[in-house]
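Problem: given the chain below (597 residues), write out its structure.
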Amino acid sequence: MQRTTIGLLATAGMLIVCGEATARSTYEATYEGDPVVVTATRSQQTVDDSLASVSVITRDDIERAQAPDLLELLRLETGIDIARSGGPGGQTSVFMRGSNSNHVLVLIDGVRVSAAGSGAFTWEIIDPAIVERIEIVRGPRAARWGSDAVGGVIQIFTRLSDGAGARAAYGRYDDRQLSAHWGNGFIGFNIAGRRVEGFSSQNPSGFAYDPDDDGFENLSFSARSDHALGGGQMAWSARFAGGDVEFDQGESDFLNYALRGSYSRRTAGPWTWEGSAAFYRDDLETDNGFSISDAETHRIQAGLQAERPIAGDTSWLLGIDAWQVEGDTSGSFNEDRDNIGVWTGIDGRRDALSWEASLRADHDGQFGSALTGNLAGGWRLGERLRLSASAGRAFRAPSFSQLYSPGFGGQYAGNPDLDPETSISGELGLDWFGPGGHGLGLSVYQNDIDDLIAFSGPQFQAINVEKARIRGAELSYRFRARRWRAESNLTWQDAQNRTTDSDLLRRADIKGSIALDRTFANDGWLGAEVVHVGERPDFGTELPSYTLVNLRAGWPLGAGLTLEGRLENLTDEDYEPLAGYNAHRRSAFVALRWRTP
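Solution.
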């Protein structure tokens, strides 16, 4: 597929003209009662109606948590492991249900944001101040989204502010944070900055230990608009992030930005159409003390999807996606790849039964065709209990680094003969929808991954030699009432490399968390978080378990002002997030927030 193919799709998507009634964009969900999500099926549905394992981090959750970055929010979520190399800005892997970090499809306002080289996303560049909500879908979603959605999908939505506000915070390690927002419901702007002196990312056992502090700077900006236009709904978003991060023996500068537009409209008949187009760029320059390298990603994407009711509460969806990505890394490789996918799905319910079915065909310009599918069914056992089952197939094309990297000293080199990774998974779920805001969920799953890419052999070259089997169980509980709210979960997983009969690295067998908040009559609040991470294997060692306790509070002062505070690692736990790397010790933050009354 040539560039002109994507250009035609983009034009078609942006210029759809049909019908009379307006339709809200599938990327613009509302919150009235049970949260509405759009990521699981690419259409609106409530969390309780979704047959996929879904959770949502709302704007209210973000403000109460006062987390300095997205990773502190994600570590509380079911089935997610965080492997962070040092302090703020450090390179981080996010594992979902035991799969690799590049097996998680990450979207920001519908835009794919993985790096062309590594195939993973740089989580550190997104400031929570510009985020409206985060939707997390566990389990394969390739039948709706295409490549990369092996372990799940995480979609971040930037803020469309209504009113004005600002926040200033200061904490240990000379951590300074400033943010502001303004909006009128039609258009909104957000800006956030952070500068922290940090601490040494590595300890004396690290391979490049340097005792100096490793700092981090980041500036984030976003703008969004959503409004009626020509009988339909027009939405667009723009985002920018730039800064630098220090690490032992080096420093990286980054620049990341994206632009997306969409238009949706309902015809005079039963169809609702939406077209979209987006552009994404990511530049990373790294100085490791010996050489300077540049890694660039350029991506354009476009899509067109349609939805219509076909009987009762059943809807039929179909769509087409196309994208082209270019990757350039300091002369090591300069490659491009295009992909076009056609998909369809049927979602519905009748009486006690509900169902989701999807089928997708992708054609990768480098690896040929791939067919993926997903089937799920639910059965209501009375008013408050639901039993569900699902099965899905997913795939992931190798990243440019896995294909073409020259490696280091002849080792960890890429392999142009790699095949895509594929997976087949199954899941059983039992959900209880209790009275008074209570909810309980249990999921058990198995994911078998074939042609897993790993560095193996005497030269540690990337080859398709391994099979992985990941089994797990997740138990979650939630409670939300007027003054109290609680979220808790417990995850057990067994992530095995079946070829070598060994555990997959950096995944904990046991992980659990609980967050509890109390709101007072004046809208002040007091909350606590507890996170436990079990033992996990790393290169040549077994890292011990650790438990973190965090406290947070907010108290209104009047005139739109709120005094906030957060205490991280209350017990001053000394632990290694990765072998040879440090983590922050006990840290206190104080903040002042203002918003228009």
